[in-house]
Design goal:
The structure is a single chain. The protein is α/β, with parallel strands linked by helices. The protein folds into two domains: 54 residues, no CATH class; 103 residues, Immunoglobulin-like, CATH 2.60.40. 34% of the residues lie in helices and 23% in strands. Helix 1 crosses helix 5. Bound molecules: copper (II) ion. The site of copper (II) ion (CU) has 5 residues, from loops.
Length: 160
């Protein structure tokens, strides 16, 4: 039984490590979310993983943060079926929950076409996180107990 449980425990440990290393990216860094910024350059070289958060800072109502489908991205259309989510509050945070390519545009007319758009490739886990999880600093038995307790707490939270 112990052997059968081990892969699950290892998976949980890796999952916790991935959650612990989740990163918040401020889109455009100090420039924020606005016209005149090259967001492809901003995104290039960064690695995004499930659990990471994108923080968009801009003047309320001056822009939108619209996650769109690929066709919405290609055509700069953030309306109807192309729009997966949409916000213009001025402080939008998007936590990425699924791997794959995610597309964001500003849906104010003309802004997407003039550069307020970017696509990011999101991996299921952050590379490097699993390597550190493979050499825990505490004995495996202790880690298993901690993980089991955490999993139990998470299940209770999910139930209530
Ligand atoms: Cu805009």
């Amino acid at each position: 039984m112990a052997n059968a449980a081990f892969p699950l425990v290892a998976l949980l440990v890796a999952g916790c490590a991935a959650l612990a290393s989740a990163t918040t990216f401020t889109v455009g860094d100090s420039q924020g979310w606005t016209t005149g910024v090259n967001y492809d350059s901003w995104a290039s070289g960064k690695s995004f993983a499930v659990g990471d958060t994108l923080a968009f800072r801009y003047v309320s109502k001056a822009h939108t943060v619209t996650e769109v489908s690929k066709s919405g991205y290609d055509t700069c259309s953030g309306s109807g079926a192309n729009a997966l989510s949409d916000d213009d509050s001025g402080s939008t945070t998007v936590t990425i929950t699924t791997p794959g390519t995610h597309y964001f545009i500003c849906n104010v007319p003309g802004h997407c076409a003039s550069g307020m758009k970017f696509a990011i490739s999101v991996s299921a886990t952050r590379s490097g996180a699993s390597a550190s999880a493979a050499s825990p600093q505490v004995p495996a038995t202790t880690a298993s107990v901690v993980v089991a307790a955490a999993a139990g707490a998470a299940i209770k939270l999910a139930l209530f």
